[in-house]
Amino acid sequence: MQSGGTSTKNNRRAELPTIGLAEEVIKDLEELKAKDVDWQGKCSGTVYIAGSESEGHFELINKAYSMFSHTNPLHQDVFKSVANMEAEVVAMTAALLGSKEKSSGGQICGNMTSGGTESILLAVKTSRDYMRSKKGITKPEMIIAESAHSAYDKAAEYFNIKVRRVPVNKEFLADVKGFKRCINGNTIMMVGSAPGFPHGLIDPIEELGELASRYDICLHVDLCLGGFVLPFARKLGYPIPPFDFSVKGVTSISSDVHKYGLAPKGTSVVLYRNHEIRKHQFVAVTEWTGGLYVSPTIAGSRPGGLIAGAWAAMMSVGLNGYLDSTSRIMEVSKKIQRGIEEIPGLFVIGKPNMTVVAFGSDVVDIFEVNDIMSSKGWHLNALQRPNSLHICVTLQHTTVYKDFLKDLQDSVDTVKANPGPISGGMAPIYGAAGKMPDRGTVRELLVEFMDSSC
C-alpha cells in the first residue's frame, strides 16, 4: 500500500513551471483527466447525475458554477446574489424536510456547507455548545449507533466529545434501548441515520425523538443520503417511516445537495429546528485588530460558484424532476435487491428503505467477490461487521443494472470454483484488518497509508 502511494508521489510536479503554460494548461488537464477510471455507471454512489458530463444537467450546473466562480458569500455586501441563492437553497431543502409542518415549530433555519461531513461537524459543535449553555455540560458525550457515519468520530475528535457507540439490533438498526442505557448527565445528543451509509436502513427516528424529548437532549438526523430521496419516495407511495422535523425531538438535520439533489460536489445543508439552537453554530470575534468578525460555518471564504450550482440544480430539476428521478432509482434499487437475493450464496442485509443495497455471503469470501467485480470495472463499497459489500444506486445505474447483476453472478461463480485471493486483490487486506484484535494497529495502518498517499 505504501509503495503504491510513493510511486504516485514520485511523478508529481514539485515546483511551478518557469514559464507559465497559459491556455496550454488545458491540454495537461485533459491528459490528467484521461487517467481517471471509467466511472460512468460503474461506481457505487460517487456520481449521482445521469448522462455525459459535457451535456444536459452536467452542462447546466457547470455553466452556473462558471458564472459565479469568482464570488464569495463571505462578502455579502458585494455578492448579494450568492447570499440570496444560499438562503433559497436552505429554504427549499427545509421545505422538503418538514419546515411546512405545524409540528416543526415554523422556525427551521440553516446554512450551506462544503459537504455532509461539514454539516455533521457543525451540528455536533452546535449541539455541544447549545447544551453547555442550557445545562452547563462541560464533559460532553454523544450516543451513536455503530452504523453511524465516521464523520461523528471525526467531530468527536475535533471537539473533544466522548462517543458512546451502541451495537445495532438484529435488524441492523439503531438500538433504542441501548441508546437509553447510555444516557447520563453528560449526554448532549444522539444520532439517527435516514438511511445509514452501510446498509441503507432508516433508524427508528420517531422512537429516538421520544427519547430525546424525554431527557431534553439534542437529536441529529443524518439525511445526507436520504434528504433528496425520502420525501419524494414517500410521495410515490413507498413505506417510508418518519424521519424529519415533523418528528418531535429532532433538533438538527444534515442533507447533501451534491448527492441525490444532483448539485455540484461540495454542497450540503445543515438545518436546525430554531434560531436559538443555530446561534451556537456561529463564531463571533470582537477583539481582532482586523475588525469585528462573525462566520456561520467552518470555512470563512466559500465558493459562491458551488452555491449557484446547487441553486441551479434544484431550480432546473424541480419537484416533478425529483419525483421522476426518485421513481427511477427506487425501481432499479428494488430490482437489484431482488436480483441479489436470487443469486445462490448471497443475502441482503436488513430490509433496505432506499437506494443502498448491502449484501454478504456465508458461502464465499465476499471480498474475493469484490476483487473479481473490480476486475470487471465495478467500484463497490466494502463493509465490515458483517463482511459485506454495498452498491449505492444512482441515475448512472438505471441503464446498466442488468450488467451489474450478471457480473455479480459470474463473480460469485468464479470464487466458488476458484476460492482464494487473486493477485493484487484487496481481499487479504480487508480480511486481515477485520480479524486483527488490536484495532490500534489497524488505525496505524490507515494513518500510514494516508500519509503516504497525500
What is the secondary structure topology, with strand pairs?
Elements: H1 2-10, H2 25-33, H3 56-67, H4 80-96, E1 109-113, H5 116-135, E2 141-145, H6 151-159, E3 162-166, H7 176-182, E4 187-193, H8 205-215, E5 218-222, H9 230-235, E6 252-256, E7 268-272, H10 275-278, E8 283-285, E9 293-295, H11 304-341, E10 346-348, E11 356-361, H12 366-375, E12 381-383, E13 388-392, H13 401-417, H14 427-435, H15 439-453
Helix pairs in contact: 1-15, 3-11, 4-11, 5-6, 11-13, 12-13, 12-14
List keywords for this structure.
454 residues, alpha/beta, seven-stranded mixed beta sheet, four-stranded antiparallel beta sheet, 43% helix, GrpII_AminoAcid_Decarb, endoplasmic reticulum, lyase
Describe the protein.
The chain is α/β, with parallel strands linked by helices and 454 residues long. Helix content is 43%, strand content 13%. The protein has 15 helices and 13 strands. The chain has helices spanning 2-10, 25-33, 56-67, 80-96, 116-135, 151-159, 176-182, 205-215, 230-235, 275-278, 304-341, 366-375, 401-417, 427-435, 439-453; strands at residues 109-113, 141-145, 162-166, 187-193, 218-222, 252-256, 268-272, 283-285, 293-295, 346-348, 356-361, 381-383, 388-392. A hairpin with a 7-residue loop joins strand 10 (346-348) and strand 11. Helix 12 crosses helix 13.
